[in-house]
Amino acid sequence: MNFPTEPFLNGAFRDPASKNRTTLINPATEEPLCDVAAASVEEVNFAVQSASEVWHSTWRDMKPGKRAEILFSIARVLRENSERIARLECAQIGKPISDARDEAALGARVFEYYAGAIGKFCGQTIPVASGGFDFTLRQPMGVVAAIVPWNFPFPIACWKVAPALAAGNSVVLKPASLSPLTALVLGELAHAAGLPAGALQVLPGSGSSIGDALVTNALVRKVSFTGSTEVGRRIMELASRDLKRISLELGGKSPNIVFADSDWRLAAESSPMSVFANTGQDCCARSRVFVEKSIFEAFVEVFLDATRKLVVGDPEKDETQLGPLVSSGQRVVVEEFLADARARGNKFACGGGRLFSKGYFLEPTVLLEVGKEDRCWREEIFGPVVCITPFEEEARMIQDVNASPYGLSGSIWTNDLRRAIRVSRAVESGVLSVNSHSSLHVEAPFGGFKQSGIGRDLGMHAMEGYTELKNVYVAL
Ligand code: NAP
Ligand code: MG
Question: Domain map of the chain by residue range?
Answer without folding.
Answer: 8-250+452-474, 255-441
